[in-house]
Structures are given as C-alpha cells and as structure tokens.
Amino acid sequence: MPYGFHPPLEEYLVAIFELEEDGVTVIQARLAERLSHSPPTVSEVIRTLLKEGTVTKSGRGISLTENGRQKAQSIVRKHRLAERLLVDILGLDWHLAHEEAGRWEHVISDRVAGRIAALTSNPSTCPHGNPIPGTIQLPDDGRVRLPEVSVGKNVNLVRIGEGAESKGETLSYLFNSGISIGTTLKVSKPLKPQTMRVKVESHFVELDLNVSQFLWVVDVP
Ligand SMILES: [Zn+2]
User: Fold this and answer.
1) Whose CA is closest to 93, among 12, 13, 172, 209?
2) What percent of the chain has pLDDT over 70?
3) How far is the CA of 94 from the centre of ligand 1 (A)?
C-alpha cells in the first residue's frame, strides 16, 4: 500500500458491523483477514477510529460505539438495497451483485435509498438473505450454521453471511453449483477434512468448512 494512503474509514465500520453480524469476535486479525489489509494498516486505522469515537476497544476486542454503529448501518442498508435493485429490477445474477453494490453504497443518498426500498417492495433482506438494517431482526426460525447439521439431513439455505459474500469467488462457486437462497441441501459424508459435502438435487457439491460456517440453514418444512 503506498505511503500515506488511508483506506476509507467507512469500510472498517462496515467490516466490524458485519463480523459481529456473522457472530465473529472482532479483533484486529479478523479485520485484516476480512479486508485483506496488512496488520500495520489495520492498527493505524483503528487508532484513527478510536480518536474519532466510532469504535471502542476492550482488551483485544473492538466494537462500534453508537455513533459508529449508526454510520455502519446506514452504509450496510444502502449496500443491501443496491443489491436488491441490481438483482430484482436490473436482472443481474445474484452472485455478481455484492461486488457491484460495493461501489454504489458510498454514493446513494438517504432519499434515493428510500426510493430503492419502495421500488423493490420494501425488502427485509438482501438477495443473499442478510437483513437490511432498519427493517427486521433476523427471524427466530431455528436457523443454524451448515456445519452444525448432521449427515443425512435435508435443510434449506436461508442466508449467505457476509463472511462468504465478501469473497467473490465463493458466491460464483455457489451460484455455479446450483446453490442459492431457498435451495435444499442434503448433508453428506465429507470426502476430505476441513470440507463439507452436500447433495443438491442429483449432484454433490464440496464446500470449504470456512465457507460453510457462513451458510445458515433451516429444517425443510
Ligand atoms: Zn448481500
């Protein structure tokens, strides 16, 4: 990274918000992984955020202050509404929407966000099942992470967490394997350690265990 370049602070607030949402304990190392930034860069940005009062630290743990949370929520809301617009109205495939929306989230005004919400029928989640802040809490429908499901069970995919969304190749892999929100997965015996194997209709799909952790599923009704 060139000297003097500071990655946008907003990106950090969003990353902290989304790590919390995925149930990950937020420490600098997790932020470095999520953002693919070097540990010194992360330390420097965290110092700036502490100074501006958008994050607090307790031990190694980092959390958002009320002010920081409001800023993060506003961007996450615009990101997820932009994804809805791209998929529902413009017809973009859902695995491509995350990256595109990453460019939109910083330029959409509150007024335009309101219009997108109206145009897309006030959605409660993005096309990947992540809740749009300001609409609903995640439903208490007994959803669990895919690795918690025992072999032989059928489940429906309800959410692809940001931990999986933030890697473009993961979304493409899921899309190309026929896995999207609502798909029924039958958990099968894994072939290799640190992987999962699921049956989708008549074919098998291998999933990395790290990715599977961010896939939330419910029992087939
Ligand atoms: Zn999304």
Assistant:
1) 172
2) 95
3) 8
